[in-house]
Amino acid sequence: MDPATLVPDLSSPEIQAFATGFPLTLLHAGITILLLAVGATLYALLTPWKEIALIREGNAAAAVAFAGVLLGLAIPLAVSLAVSTSVRDIAIWGVATIVLQLLAFRVVDVLLTGLPQRIQDGEVPAAVLLVGAKLSTALILAAALTG
Fold first, then answer.
1. Could you give the C-alpha distances from 109 to 18, 19, 79, 106, 144, in angstroms and in order?
2. What is the Cα–Cα distance from 13 to 101, expressed in whole angstroms?
3. How many angstroms separate the Cα of 78 from the Cα of each of 2, 40, 117, 141?
4. DSSP assignment of 63-79, as one string?
5. Buried b or exposed e, range 47-76, using 16+ CB within 10 angstroms
6. Which of 43, 65, 46 shows the shortest CA–CA distance to 54?
7. Residue 42: what pLDDT?
């Protein structure tokens, strides 16, 4: 066996494609994760109840509800990432997605009156209903992004 064949050819098209594409993949994923963190932080700051504090106190309903927020933001952000062709696209559509999803979350919170108090009281079924509503709006928004 020739030892030269055991060493990959660093000039192969596959290696070059990886060397070019992988840093770009990391950049795109990093921007999207940053947008997710910004969206989740904005949501936490804008809600009338303090989910993070409730989670730290062991409130399972608040944890379920906040997990729904994360998924509800991540789904349309992931679709935005998939259909975007540049960092600028990701940023523009990511911000638009966050704004629309936060508005949709607010509408859901208003329509499902009484749920925030029930979540504060630790009622997991109320949190599950809220998560279902938020994921539903996330899926619809994600589908809208694909045109």
1. 44, 46, 24, 5, 22
2. 41
3. 45, 15, 31, 11
4. HHHHHHHHHHHHHHHHH
5. beeebeebbeeebebbbbbbebbeebbbbb
6. 65
7. 93
Under a CB-based contact definition with an 8 Å cutoff, are residues 64 and 124 in contact? yes
Under 8 Å between Cβ of 145 and 97: yes
Question: The tokens 């933001």 sit on which residue?
Answer: 73
Is the pLDDT at 121 greater than 60, yes or no? yes
Structural contact between residues 102 and 42, judged by C-beta atoms closer than 8 angstroms? yes
Q: Which two tokens stand for residue 122?
A: 């630790």
Characterise 58 by phi-psi region: left (phi > 0), alpha (psi -120 to 50), beta (else): left
59, 38 contact by CB (below 8 A): no
For 49-106, how does the pLDDT look when each residue is reduced to its tens digit (9 = 90+)?
Answer: 788 999 999 999 999 999 999 999 999 999 999 998 899 999 998 999 899 888 888 8
Q: b/e map of 92-126 (b: 16 or more CB within 10 Å)?
A: ebbeebbeebbebbeebbeeeeebbebbbeebbeb
Question: pTM above the 0.70 mark?
Answer: yes
